[in-house]
From TrEMBL:
Segments of this protein annotated with the region Disordered: 1-37
Protein name (database record): Calcineurin-like phosphoesterase domain-containing protein
Similarity section: Belongs to the UPF0046 family.
UniProt signal peptide: none
Occurrences of domain Calcineurin-like phosphoesterase (ranges): 80-230
Positions with biased composition (Polar residues): 1-19
SUPFAM superfamilies, alphabetized: Metallo-dependent phosphatases
GO molecular function: hydrolase activity
């Protein structure tokens, strides 16, 4: 199983965006709803391969950096999962696109910020790119705070967004505070981050926050969130020390 470097996974698989961790470019930050951005040529994400490899269905890292392992029986039980995030319209940049297409995987997870605003045109572009990735059987994505500038607008409800993504086919699954089951693995996706900029925000330590995370089912195997876990690289703008 593949996980991006920098992930900490306590007893269950977890896949997260860390706003810059894992080689994916994060946007410029500002206080306004539409912050300033770098020039278009600076927005291409980087991709360093190989990603950390785990050759067993139930091998992962624990929160303290150790590991746990449950044998997976037959070799064909192995599921290869690749996680990317914060591509900000740079998904089709030649170097990044080439690197992704060299990986033969089962599930590709995009943990949010696939665009700069989440506009219909940007959504269509990233969906077209995901459709073209025949080297993955399933492509699962969530929105991030920057996608939420438009996608989290009052004129859109979650059902409208779901319809926007659901007609795509090609194994593409959009998750917004909901689960899917792929290859027997329960995957839950949540786009929300602590209040920062853009959309899909929540106030830290509020009642709504507790209600939001209480929605995660107990049988969740992989949690995909755009924000990092509490107290793990969540106090800095780039997810680094």
């Amino acid at each position: 199983m593949n996980y991006s470097s920098g992930q900490r996974i306590p007893n269950r698989y977890s896949s997260q965006s860390s706003e810059g961790v894992g080689g994916c470019l994060n946007p410029g930050h500002g206080a306004s709803r539409r912050p300033m951005y770098k020039r278009e040529e600076e927005l291409s994400p980087t991709c360093t391969m190989p990603i950390t490899m785990h050759h067993s269905h139930f091998t992962s890292n624990t929160i303290d950096g150790g590991s746990f392992h449950e044998p997976s029986g037959q070799r064909n039980d192995v599921v290869k999962i690749v996680c990317i995030s914060d591509t900000h319209n740079g998904h089709s940049a030649p170097h990044f696109d080439h690197q992704i297409r060299q990986i033969k995987g089962d599930i590709l997870i995009h943990a949010g910020d696939f665009s700069n605003h989440g506009s219909p045109a940007e959504v269509e572009k990233v969906l077209s790119w995901l459709k073209s990735l025949n080297n993955f059987e399933y492509k699962i994505l969530i929105a991030g705070n920057m996608d939420g500038i438009d996608l989290d607008d009052a004129q859109y409800d979650s059902e409208t967004r779901r319809r926007q993504f659901s007609h795509t086919g090609s194994g593409i699954i959009y998750l917004e505070n909901e689960s899917c089951n792929v290859r027997g693995i329960n995957i839950y996706g949540c786009p929300y981050t602590p209040k920062f900029c853009g959309g899909f925000q929540y106030e830290r330590h509020s009642r709504n926050t507790r209600e939001l995370w209480n929605m995660i089912p107990h049988n969740c195997d992989i949690l995909v969130s755009h924000g990092p876990p509490q107290d793990i690289f969540d106090q800095t703008s780039r997810g680094t020390i």
